[in-house]
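Exercise 7.
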Amino acid sequence: MRIFLTGATGFIGSAIVPELLKAGHHVIGMTRSDSGAKALEAAGVEAHRGTLEEPESLSRGAEKADAVIHTAFDHDFSRFVENCQKDVRAIAALGEVLKGSSRPLLITSGTGLGNAVLGGPAREDVCNFEHPNPRVASELAGNALLEAGVNVGVVRLPQVHNTIKQGLISPLIAIARDKGASAYVGEGHNRFPAGHLSDVALLYRLAIERAEPGARYNAVGEEGISSRVIAEALGRGLKLPVVSIAPEKAADHFGWMAMFMGLDFPASSAITRRVLGWNPSGPGLIADLDAMNYDSLAA
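Solution. The predicted structure, written as tokens, is:
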């Protein structure tokens, strides 16, 4: 297939590219820069210039493709709500091109949208449109396209990790350095789901090849790692003390990250594994945190 991939030079997209190429697909990768275009072309990818701020540039990329994988997202969490609405516009632009065809569109969301009850394991067969996470806007946009006849599927992401980045865990490193301690909230029993980058890239390929309308997949290798265990791993790596922060002081310590630090959001991938035959085999989150070079990250 000719697959248009947004976010092709990003953390997740750059791992999806070789996975698709290895399977024999032609990849059209979106990038906003000359350097990104050169890197994509050197990897055997057809570069397409575009940005999330210009939805029509996404439409032009989708017009050239048999399928679309949308991973691009503005990860400035200080403007999270605004960026979720930007994603809505991007999804709408991609979907408009695909109307009237069976060409699949695979969008990206978060595992929390599968929580029927806060604190319970998120499931693929649950879509909680009342969830407080602003990323619900992406799934609402996808659902609107699905009702309009577009072949839309969703990959829901946990904390995607390798030894360089770990989703929402990565900002905690900077916070720990700034505060002089690696912290968790209360007793630290709340959990973060996780998935290794290589496993997540494989899941995107399997999902776009299956192209099942309305399918939702959880890219989860580990159902939930407690925030205390994560803080302890960061403390080891940074050689900093590990401390508990009272819930009422979380905002002062964690800043914008405070909205996530007290949440318990484990997630299951049982349905994903069964339907796609997906068997994650990459290192676990704590193994990657322990293998990180914290000095090079500081540099």
